[in-house]
Amino acid sequence: MNHEIVPKSVGTHDGSFHADEVTACSLLLLYKLIDKDKIIRTRDPEALARCEYVCDVGGDL
Fold first, then answer.
1. What integer pLDDT is reported at residue 56 of this predicted model?
2. What are the backbone angles phi and psi of residue 5, rounded to the nearest 5°?
3. Fewer CB within 10 A of the end CB, N or C, for the chain?
4. Which pLDDT tens digit goes with each residue over 3-50?
5. By the 8 A CB rule, do 6 and 42 touch?
6. Does the pLDDT of residue 59 top 70, yes or no?
7. Burial class of 37 by CB neighbour count within 10 A (0 to 12, 13 to 18, 19+)
8. Is 4 exposed, middle or buried (0-12, 13-18, 19+ CB in 10 A)?
9. DSSP tag of 45
10. In angstroms, how far is CA 44 from the centroid of its own chain?
11. How many Cβ atoms sit within 10 Å of the Cβ of residue 53?
12. What pLDDT does 53 receive?
């Protein structure tokens, strides 16, 4: 499995979206720290570990 960090990516939980991850992703986009096509919505710890940023996954990482 490739564990290389994906530049300009963010991982957040899947399922229903909430204001906190929408705010986090919006700010990262606003400051051009992530690309909108690199928002990864999952709870898979291996996929989240490859993201440059991670938000709102319950502190599991």
1. 87
2. -70, 135
3. N
4. 799 999 999 999 888 899 999 999 999 999 999 999 999 999 999 999
5. no
6. no
7. exposed
8. exposed
9. H
10. 11
11. 19
12. 96
CB 46 within 8 A of CB 57: no
Where helices occur in 1-61 by DSSP H, the ranges are: 19-30, 45-49
Q: Distance of CA 60 to CAs 13, 41, 44, 56, Å? A: 11, 15, 10, 10
CA 22 to each of CA 3, 13, 27, 36, 43: distance values in angstroms, whole numbers, following the listed order: 26, 11, 9, 12, 16
Tokens for 29?
Answer: 């986009």
